[in-house]
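Sync notes, pocket subgroup
Present: LS, DG
LS reminded everyone that the earlier model was apo-only. Rerun requested with NAP included. Inputs:
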Amino acid sequence: MRVMVTGAAGMLGADLSALLRSGHTVVAVDIADFDITDPVASAAAVRDSGAQAVIHCAAFTDVEKAETHGEAALAVNARGSRNIAAGCRKTGARLYLISTDFVFDGLKGSPYVESDRPNPLSQYGRSKLEGEQLARRELGEKLSVVRTAWLYGGSGENFLTKLLRFAARGNTVRVVDDQYGSPTWTVALAECLARMLKAGAASPLYHAACTGRCARFEMAREWFRLLDLDSIELEPVGSDTFPSAVSRPVDSTMAGDALEREGIGGLPPWREALGRFANNGGKELAKQILGG
Ligand SMILES: NC(=O)c1ccc[n+]([C@@H]2O[C@H](COP(=O)([O-])OP(=O)(O)OC[C@H]3O[C@@H](n4cnc5c(N)ncnc54)[C@H](OP(=O)(O)O)[C@@H]3O)[C@@H](O)[C@H]2O)c1
């Protein structure tokens, strides 16, 4: 199949493009190729790609910056997604739009499933939800929204690389223990997206995150344990230790049954995926950052 991947230079897009290349013709694009905020360029790029499916990973992902640059976040995440969807409408391509746990307010008290009602707390979350809605208006049933959460991977900055940078300074690493979610390895998500393509997944909405639930602190402890860095001092702290303009969901743990119900299969438990990452690039990444 010909598959277009937007945001292909980003954390998910890079791993996804690499993985899909073994079975598909991948048209990998990022901002150097065209800007998704440009409707004409977006439509032309989707058309010229000849893709039967587009996996839209490009996004304004800096949650802190989105809070103060709300219009810029909307331009990319909302109207940019609509532009990609409009391109797909003209060619008939199916669109898989990657979205986020930040569309939820985190107050449910149990894991979020596909039927739960979004209620974003942040500009980032609002812009991503509006992207889902605008793309739906363009494409209807040719759109599958794929919500994921707490991504980490081998390229780009993420929670795990930030932990290592703090550790490299030799100080105690303070990590919040009152925010819960579903840490998800980009490769585990990419493998799931590959299975979705193969199966012709066509439901309107999928939750696709590693299973289980943990606090940021627990994730940090497991990461350092896997790296044999138990000597690094970790201190659990409350979110109020790090004042932020962004309201984050307290517990955005993701679940859902669409992937299992359709025989596509969900993602592995978060500890298993983190272990696989540690042994597949994570340890090298840690050495680079820690200078070992
Ligand atoms: N990271 C997470 O924890 C997380 C959690 C849940 C869902 N998601 C979603 O998963 C997807 C992938 O996230 P990620 O962390 O892999 O993102 P990322 O690393 O920030 O990659 C996004 C890519 O999109 C590009 N881009 C930004 N604006 C663009 C524009 N106007 N036109 C074309 N390309 C543009 C970025 O380029 P620049 O770097 O030059 O801006 C970057 O290469 C996103 O949809 C995100 O919302 C992420």
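DG: DSSP finds ten helices and twelve strands in the chain.
LS: The chain has a mean pLDDT of 97.
Action: DG to write up.
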